[in-house]
Amino acid sequence: MRMTDLIGKEIVNIYNGARLGVVGESDMDIDVDSGEIRSIILPKKNNIINLWVDRQQLVIPWDAVKKIGAEVIIVDLDQTSPGYQRYSF
User: Residue 32 and which of 40, 41, 48, 82 are 20 to 30 A apart at CA?
Assistant: First the structure.
């Protein structure tokens, strides 16, 4: 699968049904040696209040991706999973 095949797909968490974001509005952590995707990095959804105050990102490890469909990517994340991380910048 090419990275361009992922662009525009909605990311949905199977754990709670939350819509996390869209690939294309996100970044990817890619291993430069192997070319494998290590994680998808989603920005926190912005509103006027957190535009300047708090910039967090949700890092979804690639092994949390369970299924890639025609329109959505299903991930399995809960806050207790070891790969679930939020970073503040």
Answer: 82
DSSP 23-83: TTSSEEEE-TTT--EEEEEEEPPP-TTTTTS--EEEEEEGGGEEEE-SSEEEE---TTSTT
- Is the distance from CB of 58 to CB of 41 less than 8 angstroms? yes
CATH number (2.30.30.30, 2.30.30.240, 2.40.110.10, 1.10.10.10) of 3-88 reads 2.30.30.240
Tokens of 52: 């300047």
What confidence score (pLDDT) does residue 89 get? 39
